[in-house]
Design goal:
Layout (H helix, E strand, L loop, with lengths): L4 E6 L2 H10 L2 H6 L1 E6 L8 H6 E6 L11 H6 L6 E4 L12 E2 L7 E2 H8 L4 H10 L8 H16 L7 H7 L6 E3 L2 E2 L1 H15 L28 H7 L9 E4 L2 E4 H13 L6 H7 L1
Helix pairs in contact: 1-9, 6-11
Length: 277
């Protein structure tokens, strides 16, 4: 008899969750799992929706049309169980982060200075040495982020916000604004298992996880030293280096590459640029 089908509709967190859920003997013996990437608009076959017994999803609003959560939930069998997953985001470390423009992990102040045509030397001087609080309210960015994440967390299978707030000054709990650390991904998986009535994952279940885990742990978005000082981040050293694939970069080196990439017309290829330069 075929196993019941579990569909997961999620962003890149889904790849990590899939690995963890399949490491659970109870889950893997009960369900076969199909993972569909939501942000790339990967279509879910109609036959999969018709056969679905368990639907794990990160909420997408009506602007996603046929791939919105509301639309997909309507197409499930009446007997299917739906479990909403957290979709963690945190810009407390990166109050200048912006999704505007083509630059991956864009920085609003750097983009503004670059758009104004300032030379690199001036941009570096302003960005590294001017009082950052004259450009951004770091406290408000954090408070707004927490409030938004608490609202997003309602109705999901795992609580992440309080765990994050208890630890974020002592250790890096996010690699980038939308890439949580290993422990947060694990909490998401444990939340799913608990909701289903399965035992939690134990260390013996995690020995065969791929390295690195999570898979995006090769890239740590650098944190402005003034942000570290303002928030009292105890894990940031004066000479802090950040993992960028196979190398370690200081904050100033990362900013220099960001500027060079934009000024040389490679904004669409920033992450590739970082791997080469």
């Amino acid at each position: 008899m075929p196993q019941p089908l579990c569909l997961m509709h999620a962003n890149c967190h889904g790849e990590e969750l899939k690995t963890l859920l399949q490491a659970s003997p109870d889950f893997s013996h009960t369900y076969r799992l199909e993972y569909y990437i939501n942000y790339t608009r990967q279509p879910i076959p109609a036959e999969s929706l018709e056969q679905c017994s368990l639907f794990l999803y990160q909420h997408l609003g009506p602007e996603w049309q046929d791939l919105s959560s509301e639309s997909l939930l309507r197409r499930l069998p009446a007997s299917a169980e739906a479990v909403r997953l957290p979709n963690p985001f945190f810009n407390g470390y990166w109050p200048l982060w912006t999704s505007d423009g083509h630059m991956a992990f864009g920085d609003s102040l750097l983009n503004r200075l670059l758009d104004e045509g300032a030379p690199k030397k001036i941009i570096m001087s302003i960005y590294l040495h001017k009082d950052l609080s004259s450009f951004v309210d770091m406290r408000s960015v954090l408070e707004n982020c927490i409030a938004r994440e608490r609202l997003k967390e309602e109705g999901t299978c795992a609580s992440l916000v309080d765990w994050t707030l208890d630890r974020w000054k002592d250790r890096p709990v996010f690699h980038t604004v939308n890439h949580p650390c290993r422990e947060l991904i694990l909490r998401m998986a444990q939340g799913v298992l608990s909701h289903l009535g399965f035992p939690p994952l134990e260390e013996k279940n995690l020995t065969d996880l791929p390295a690195p885990f999570p898979s995006y742990a090769f890239f740590d978005l650098p944190i402005h030293p003034q942000v570290a000082t303002f928030h009292g981040l105890r894990f940031i050293a004066p000479d802090q280096k950040y993992t960028m694939w196979q190398r370690q970069l200081a904050f100033e080196q990362y900013i220099s590459r960001y500027i060079d990439c934009r000024q040389n017309g490679y904004a669409d290829y920033f992450l590739g640029y970082l791997q080469l330069v």
